[in-house]
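can u do me a favor
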């Protein structure tokens, strides 16, 4: 079996990407800030003159790295915490696609597998954290993505 497409719909909490923002390639990896996860992805956030957007779309836009600046990322968690249900997790949600105790270190690399759409390693890792990758597949997926996604020891 192979992993489900990383863009499949879910009501699971949205876990942060392996970085907490701040690198030049992806200035806002987690709109909730730090290690917090989003528990209300269907919440609607409206700010000033911008159109309302669901919390899950806000996170996807942030992972894209182009539309949310580092400055905006620094104050965004305080604005969305209640609306998007940003909380520290009691436990890890889903699994790390790199394997237990490992994280993706090359989030912008693209992983391709026959029969599934190509996805960045960051999207694949987030899908794993959110439980979109079945536990039965979490065991063999690290061997498939290790070189492409740069799996290494790290924290969630």
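np, heres the sequence
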């Amino acid at each position: 079996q192979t992993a489900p497409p990383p863009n499949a719909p879910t009501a699971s909490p949205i876990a942060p990407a392996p970085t907490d923002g701040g690198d030049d390639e992806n200035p806002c990896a987690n709109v909730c800030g730090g290690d917090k996860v989003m528990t209300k992805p269907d919440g609607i956030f409206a700010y000033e003159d911008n159109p309302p957007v669901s919390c899950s779309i806000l996170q996807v836009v942030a992972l894209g790295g182009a539309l949310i600046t580092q400055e905006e990322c620094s104050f965004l968690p305080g604005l969305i915490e209640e609306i998007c249900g940003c909380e520290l997790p009691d436990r890890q949600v889903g699994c790390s696609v790199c394997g237990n105790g490992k994280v993706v270190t090359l989030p912008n690399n693209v992983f391709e597998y026959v029969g599934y759409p190509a996805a960045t390693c960051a999207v694949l890792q987030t899908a794993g954290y959110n439980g979109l990758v079945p536990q039965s597949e979490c065991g063999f997926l690290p061997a498939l993505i290790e070189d492409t996604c740069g799996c290494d020891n790290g924290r969630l």
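Residues 1-24 have pLDDT under 50 and may be disordered. hope that helps!!
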